[in-house]
Write a structure and sequence with these properties.
This is Iron-regulated membrane protein. The chain is about 55% helix and about 15% strand. By secondary structure, it is α+β, with helices and mostly antiparallel strands. A hairpin with a 4-residue loop joins strand 3 and strand 4.
Length: about 425
């Protein structure tokens, strides 16, 4: 590019921005990349590490989900089931999420040291329990720990601000901006475009490090931009992404955030509402045009609502496409308060629906998950090579300055000797 062109004059500024943006987010992206590569296979790895938690001890027809939930709450009267599968894969345990009930004497939640329980679906016997997301490297906690680390870094929530969510959301925004700066810097001129795609493997050393960073980023640029955009959505969807998208397209209310809280349910009301909603879930789904069977139920007793997910046994993540349909229901009346049905709604609604499937790679099934796992490793590699390049150039910049200082010192010494002997 000729020296007088605006792009050339802008290049030093872009280089500085890329340097400082990259250094500022390198550690975050390194952690997010490595953990993301692992949690693309969270179910499979968790099952391999903890077979007794995920695989049922006995064979036989599973008990009804409602009976399993009732047995669990009878055994643990201070816990309420907040999510449960309505069907179980053959040979697998029935795994429920629980939350503490409120102690009527103190108006505070009862202390619980677990939030996930696995039962043998044929007998109702407990096979394991854990605190999902606990900061622990124990085998039972390892995959949930990595999942939580990926999204929150275990940063605290203070004064109503979730610092983990905001940190990773801001990192995503800086990363997105830096991605566009990087692609401009990668192609300084039309004549040198081949260099921006090549890897000098035989040269090795710094040349290969530089090519891994520059050319690796170019080859994967599209995937990196997708992951950056979706990482913003995963963390700051309500705060940033939905307001931006709503400028260009009408959005339906978020069914999981827009429901106004109703009167809290008592334990007896929760049990009765759960039984009624489970019995009516299939018919309610058909009225909404959903063909899949009811697959999961979540409860928010404090808000007086239940949610029903529609999918086959074991497909709670959604193996392909835009995910599973969900309905949010009034616990007392069964009225549909909100819904999210993949593929339905405005262009903006479908864009929002696509964010988690794109971020996880599940939108195209197994190939997508492989691509996302590889991209996570590449993000970690780009972070490391970026820092190495900066260190190399920083040392090179310091060397002339050091030599200049030494030359000045030597000249000063000579002058001093000359005056002394003069």
């Amino acid at each position: 590019m000729p020296a007088g062109e605006p792009g050339c004059r802008m290049r030093p500024l872009l280089v500085r921005l890329h340097r400082w943006f990259g250094l500022g987010i390198a550690a975050f992206l390194f952690v997010a990349g490595l953990t993301g590569a692992v949690i693309a296979w969270d179910h499979e790895l968790d099952g391999m590490l903890n077979p007794s938690f995920f695989h049922s001890a006995t064979e036989g027809a599973p008990l009804p989900a409602l009976e399993l939930a009732t047995r669990l709450e009878a055994k643990e009267p201070h816990a309420v089931v907040t999510f449960m599968p309505l069907s179980v894969e053959p040979g697998h345990t029935w795994i429920a999420r629980v939350a503490p009930r409120i102690d009527p004497h103190t108006a505070q939640p009862y202390p619980l040291d677990f939030n996930q329980v696995a039962l043998d679906p044929a007998t109702g016997e407990e096979q394991g329990r854990r605190m999902w997301g606990k900061a622990s490297l124990a085998r039972l906690n390892l995959i949930p720990f990595l999942y939580q680390l990926h999204y929150t870094l275990f940063l605290p929530t203070k004064m109503g601000i979730d610092f983990g969510v905001w940190t990773m959301g801001v990192v995503g925004m800086v990363w997105l901006l830096d991605g566009f700066i990087a692609i401009v810097l990668a192609f300084p001129s039309l004549k040198s475009w081949r260099k921006s795609l090549a890897f000098r493997v035989k040269r090795g050393g710094y040349a290969l490090t530089f090519d891994l960073h520059r050319s690796g980023g170019v080859w994967l640029w599209g995937l990196l931009i997708v992951v950056a955009v979706t990482s913003i959505s995963m963390n700051l969807g309500a705060q940033v992404v939905r307001p931006v998208v709503s400028v260009f397209s009408t959005l339906a209310p978020d069914p999981f955030r827009s429901v106004a809280p109703g009167p809290a349910l008592t334990p007896a009301e929760t049990t009765a509402a759960r039984a009624r909603i489970v019995s009516e879930a299939a018919e309610v789904g058909r009225r909404e045009g959903i063909t899949a069977p009811p697959g999961g139920l979540f409860a928010v007793p404090a808000f007086g609502v239940f949610g029903v997910g529609y999918y086959g046994a074991g497909n709670d993540h959604g193996d392909a496409g835009l995910g599973n349909p969900w309905l949010v229901l009034n616990a007392r009346t069964g009225q549909v308060l909100g819904k999210q049905i993949p593929g339905q709604g405005s262009a903006g609604d479908i864009f929002i629906q696509a964010q988690f499937p794109l971020h996880s790679g599940r939108i195209v099934g197994l190939p997508g998950r492989i691509a996302i796992s590889f991209t996570g490793l590449a993000v970690a590699m780009l972070s490391v090579t970026g820092v190495l390049i900066w260190l190399k150039k920083a040392r090179a910049r310091r060397k002339p300055a050091k030599q200049g200082k030494q030359a000045k010192a030597a000249a000063g010494t000579v002058r001093t000797r000359e005056r002394a002997t003069g």
